[in-house]
Design goal:
Layout lengths: L2 H25 L4 H8 L1 H18 L7 H32 L12 H33 L2 H36 L1 H4 L3
């Protein structure tokens, strides 16, 4: 079994376990300090995964494969979207277990939807930048293009997805909003 793939799966499972434990501690047991300490474990998982990828390539002298690149993208995703995911789960948990307000869904139409799509794409852009920096940094640390060519190919994948996301969502919703006329501009 691929060590980096196990690390990615462990990080993802760990993220949800730490998140649920942290929120359960906050809302069910009312131990806010313990909850905060538990939730601080989320970034530790990212450090673990980055260390594992680096160790595998530098110490084990492994040839980078698909999972090494996937790990870098996973890191970018968790840093760019992690806070939003945690906030949404926290809002749901507060609603379900602590009589909090019902969580709001993203707007479906209007300028609110356009703004939402641009915010999401900016997070994707941040994800792409972080993943690219990680991929380039590891490639430079390894100093062996023959062993890191797969990491370089991930750069194209990341930016292709970012470009498709750009056209398919924020640009598409912006154009649709303008074309629908003044009545749609006042909603949202």
């Amino acid at each position: 079994m691929n060590l980096v793939l196990i690390g990615i799966l462990a990080s993802e499972i760990g993220f949800w376990v730490v998140l649920i434990l942290g929120l359960a501690t906050r809302y069910l047991l009312r131990w806010r300090k313990v909850s905060t300490i538990l939730l601080l474990g989320v970034p530790v998982l990212d450090v673990f995964l980055l260390s594992l990828i680096s160790w595998d390539l530098l110490v084990n002298e492994t040839i980078a494969d698909f999972t090494h690149g996937l790990g870098a993208v996973y890191l970018g995703f968790t840093i760019a979207f992690g806070r939003q995911i945690i906030s949404r789960v926290d809002a749901w948990f507060a609603y379900r277990f602590a009589s909090g307000p019902e969580p709001k869904a993203p707007p479906k139409v209007g300028i609110g939807r356009v703004k939402y799509e641009w915010e999401q794409w900016l997070k994707m852009l941040l994800c792409a930048v972080i993943a690219s920096v990680v991929l380039v940094a590891i490639t430079l640390l390894v100093r062996d293009p023959a062993r890191t060519s797969e990491l370089t190919s991930w750069l194209a994948r990341i930016w292709l997805v970012t470009g498709i996301w750009f056209i398919g969502w924020p640009v598409w919703y912006s154009i649709g909003h303008v074309l629908r006329g003044p009545e749609s501009r006042s909603s949202g």
